[in-house]
Amino acid sequence: MYNAKYIIPGLVIFLALVLFPFMKGAGHEKKFEVELEKPKNGSKECVLPTNEMRDKHMVLLNEWRDDVVRNGKRIYKNEAGKEFSMSLTNTCMDCHADKEKFCDKCHNSVGVNPYCWNCHNISPVKKGGK
Amino acid sequence: MNSSRRDFLKLAGISAVAVSAGTLGFLGQGANAADALPPVAADFKAPITAKRWAMVVDSAKFNDALLQKCADACHSYHNVPSIGSNKEIKWFWSDDFDATFPTERPAHLSEEMEHRKFPLLCNHCANPPCVRVCPTKATFKREDGLVMMDYHRCIGCRYCMAGCPFGARSFNFQDPAPFIKNVNPLFPHRTRGVVEKCTFCVEQLAKGEQPLCVQASDGALLFGDLEDANSSVRKALKEKYAIRRKPDAGTEPGVFYIL
Amino acid sequence: MIEKALKGSPRYFGTLFVLLVVLGIGAGFYLYQLNQGLVITGLSRDVSWGFYIAQFTYMVGVAASAVMLVLPYYFHHYKAFSKMIIMGEFLAIAAVIMCLGFIVIDIGQPQRMLNVLLNSTPNSVLFWDMVVLNGYLILNVVIGWTSLMAYWKRVSPPTWVKPLVYLSVVWAFSIHTVTAFLYAGLPGRHYWLTAILAARFLSSAFCSGPALLLLLTLLLKRVTSFDPGREAIKTLSTIITYAMCVNVFFFLLEVFTAFYSNMPGHMDPLVFLFSGYEGHTYMTPFMWTAAFLGIGSLVMLIPYKWRYTPEILVPALVMLVIGTWLDKGMGLIVAGFTPNPFERVTEYMPTGPEMMIALMIYALGGVVLTILWKIALEVRKEVEGTL
Hints:
- The structure holds 3 protein chains of 3 kinds.
- Chain B has helices spanning 3-19, 64-77, 97-100, 111-115, 129-133, 159-163, 202-206, 212-216, 232-239, and strands at 53-58, 93-96, 117-120, 139-141, 147-149, 170-171, 195-196, 221-225, 242-243, 255-258.
- By secondary structure, chain B is α+β, with helices and mostly antiparallel strands.
- Chain B folds into 2 domains: 3-44, no CATH class; 53-258, Alpha-Beta Plaits, CATH 3.30.70.
- In chain B, a hairpin with a 5-residue loop joins strand 4 and strand 5 (147-149).
- Chain C has one domain: Formate dehydrogenase/DMSO reductase domain (Formate dehydrogenase/DMSO reductase fold, Up-down Bundle).
- At the A-B interface, helix 2, strand 2 and helix 3 of A face helix 1 of B.
């Protein structure tokens, strides 16, 4: 191998850097736990069942966004036949009033930063918000 | 009508307000008590529709106070920030004859007309140059004639602002949130880097209500379907002569001014 | 071939270093803009396009001007341009990269840039501008690199380069025409609403771009032993002169239409630029300087004895570049927005941070150009034994 005296140490350093996060976390595996505040207004039913919401709420919100803004449709009917107004601000955040205690809990833990909050950052039932 | 669900939500909303600490300061100047609750699906069951929405301005009925009232009704509900510099954002404002109708090039205007102020807003043209030039269709024309904004898609290129012959569009040069006097939590504000403008209150129309400026105008603004011969706008246009701004631009504006 | 950019004289690395420092400082200001928004610029609700878009417009012209070399050399086998041709193509590459850079720094939500592709809108000229600019970049990279590589390997270039060259000739005209169409189809902007805008853009491009190329190659002649050749310089300076004559002529045509018709919509922007509108005279010094520099450069370029004298040619070219830059890079955009749709004036001047961010893009173009020209020169030195 040409330049072996540079390449071998270089490879070792590279592997060390790449594997460092895995080595550091090994042995301390925690279950992914987040505590989400339940809606204060007593509402028990979300638009979709909880496990479905967890997986699909981003897709649902994108569909809602396009339906309301671009197609002028505002009423959503879920599988149970219940109707909702398709609005992040007025439907979702009406029940989940405190974004920091609900939405941000998961988002911060998994490290995502949806840009929705640039505009839809105030709950309709509480003044203020960030 | 699902009144029980509506009642439940009303009760839940009031309880939530009672439980949370803050005051009901979010009402703003133009929103009335009925708007204190977020709209639910039932509110959108009876929208008002049209083939082509248009507005007729009875300009003689306006004075400075009424113009301010209409502008406040719009800006406070829609969280339009007050920037106060040449980077301002306005959806509904007023100006004199020369600025409203620059193509008229008046000479020896009557004294009353010289001092009259006219409301200015997006004209929701039938042939909008802003829609033609938008590279992402972030601004687009609906079938009912409204020229709409999709703030989620806008890349902030400001081509639409260059294209509009009426100067109806504003750009968010910075984050607008610090400049919104009384936030209305029922309507999102915009983010920096997108263009915004009057949308003929599409969210009010969806609830079956008139645009907020029309509601605040005490009858000085008429709003209706231009293609319905019996609408208020057509009736007004039949009786009185009305002009539009910059007709030669060929954009076919939807706002008519009775002088 | 790219390894040829890695070894060079202290002057070469010094140039790169200075450009990278400028780029770095500009990048710091750009981070500030990304943080605060376009509020840090001098733009306003009325003048919503300004310095960045003006620089973009000017550099599209420079990019398109490569055709002034490509056309004689490839179509008409004008061998005198053989040393300059690769330099012109590489300047076009640097210029298009600068154009794209100026667009990116101007838009309000740059992370949503790809929306233009994802939601493509063929009725928008901006969509087509993006298509033609990127296409031109790819064309020039492919043609330039392949030709240089073939020259380096002492073989003739592959046959498919020829049709691409012909395509690039047509494409060069199209990029600046499409850029002109951005402005020329807007019903509310009377300064731009003229059929001759595309022609003005092209004529201004075809004098300012080659002038910039000639100045840079003459600079190269000073700092290295690269000599484009006496005939190439003479022919290029003649092309520049003719193009500048057309440029000035087209501008005077605009002046005639505006003032003989006496139509306010046509006159007002010109009055604003050259005499001031309702007391706002801040643009007049720039525009009259542009006029004097432009006419002055013609006076120095038209007599061939002067044109072929480097001591007169160089100042004339400098005056031409500055004059056309003032016209396109300062006057054009502002005058489109002034007076505004309400017949009022909102003054626009770029702020310090705005100019530094623009300088960042210019430095980026400079880095690209320095590296590409270094490669071209090294290849020539290797093949010919001398520059």
